Amino acid sequence: MPRYRFNEFLLSPRRRTLTRNGREQPLIPRYFDLLVFLVERRGDAVHRRDIFDRIWSDVVVSDSALSQAIRTIRRVLGDDSREPRFVRTVSRHGYQFVFADVAEEDDEGEWQKSDAATPVVAPLPPVAADPYEPLLQRLTSIPARANDDEERREAAELLHALGTSEALRRLAARPHDPSVRALLRDTRWDVAEAGPVPILGQPAPLATALELVKLRLRRAASLAAARWAGASMGGGLSGLLGGAVGALILLAAPGNAASLGVVPVFAVIGACCGAAGGAGVGAGLSVAESIARSRRLLALVCGAALGGSLAGATAEWLGRWSLAALVGVNVSIGGGLEGLAIGGAAGLAYGLATSDPAGGLAAPRGWRRLVVALMTAASCGLAALTLALAGRPLVGGTIHLIADASAGSQVNLTSLGRLIGEPDFGPLTSALIATGEGALFGFGLALGLTHRPAISRTSHSTLTKR
Description:
Elements: E1 2-6, E2 9-12, E3 17-20, E4 23-24, H1 29-40, E5 46-47, H2 48-55, E6 59-60, H3 63-77, E7 87-90, E8 94-97, E9 102-106, H4 111-116, H5 132-140, H6 148-172, H7 178-187, H8 205-219, H9 221-252, H10 262-291, H11 296-327, H12 336-353, E10 361-362, H13 366-389, H14 395-405, H15 414-419, H16 427-449
Antiparallel strand pairs: 1-2, 1-9, 2-3, 3-4, 5-8, 6-10, 7-8
Helix pairs in contact: 1-3, 5-6, 6-7, 7-8, 9-10, 9-16, 10-11, 10-12, 11-12, 12-13, 13-16
């Protein structure tokens, strides 16, 4: 594996270091990998799709994440986006490493001997008498233009590079709103040498936390919306399949009085319930993953449980009201508790099965995606089994309760119990149906949630030049 020497820099992929005149220049891992990728493809205009596939292969991130990475690399290299010496923006396409004199060297030799011979081609940029003050002024100013937000973000990153603790000390001595500390907290994850930015124990902690949530949601809004839609669709398709298969099994059961018309009815009921559950749990997972950079697993469990419980409680209220108002049937059906349990189980399995995406939303590929779906299915199936054993039926059990309470119904599921050796719709039948429902829902939810949107090579989205 070679190392690359350009200008006063030495880039070693094997040692994962970038040095400038022998002094190491820190970069977070993904930004370091991006620099190596651009240097390896030097001379080529690398499309942003290829960058996402190589650097963010296991997660999905927005275009702003790539722009931020390029901005950080330029800052470390002392580059200027208006007159680039190293990284050029290729409009509506991607980026290109344009420094012509790049030497490849064997990286197996003595590091120190090679570094000792490094020529100093250009001096280091001069340091201002007080570099903090102009950055703090820019950070605490009220945005007036559309690109002011990115300039404030760049100021926050530069303050971290200078020294997080000193920036916070100076910030405490001047008036500022909670969004300033929130921005410093958010950008600390993108600067390798950044220090901690506490919120608890500081002025206006709740307001700062709210600003941080709003900031991260704003940057990940489109990705979170796409994942929410995918989770809803995945849950709906799994419910459609489960309802249709369940109806066909019911038709094949001995002593069954149902007609073939129950197949589309069960399929529609399953699709609606699955889509509603997927929308609730998927929304909770998407929002939690978008805003949580620390304690990710806890955030995923809480977000999915909350989303599932809200969707379940809404379905419970609508179901009871509709049955009572339309057909005069009063059945004690569940929803809120069931959504809480299955949502929490989905969040736990998804969090354990996906590694920390480091600023993006997890999107594993191939067999890793299948593992995530299987783990989520197993966890949701186990939660559904626990609910059934506790006397809390899911969709199939609720349909049986409604059919029992309705005179002349053809969809009584007693025959399913006889199919497996029970005289009635007993606990074993209820447990098997609930476990299958939960597992199928978890599988479809995970596949929909981790769907990776395609990035077209002919996309006309304009890349920022910063």
